[in-house]
Amino acid sequence: MKTENIENIELEELSLNDYDDLVSAMQASYKSMSQNVWKKEQIAKLIEIFPEGQVALKINEDIAAVALAIIVPGKKVDQHHTYDSITGKETFSTHDPNGNVLYGIDIFVHPNYRGMKLGRRLYEYRRELCERLNLRGIAFGGRMPNYHKYAKNLTPKEYINKVRNKEIADPVLNFQISNDFRPTRILRNYLPDDKLSDKNAILMEWDNIYYEEKEETITKTTKTVVRLGLIQWQMRPYKSFDDVMEQAEYFVDTLSGYRSDFALFPEYFNAPLMADYNHLSEAGAIRELAEYTHGFRDRFSELAVQYNINIITGSMPEIVDDQLYNMGYLCRRDGSIERYEKIHITPDETKAWGLQGGSQIKAFDTDCGKIGILICYDVEFPELPRLLADQGMDILFVPFLTDTKNGYSRVRYCAQARAIENECYVAIAGSVGNLPKVHNMDIQYSQSMVFTPCDFAFPADGIKGASTPNTEMILIEDVDLDLLLELHEQGSVKNLKDRRTDLYSLKRKK
Question: Which residues are catalytic?
Answer without folding.
Answer: 267, 342, 376
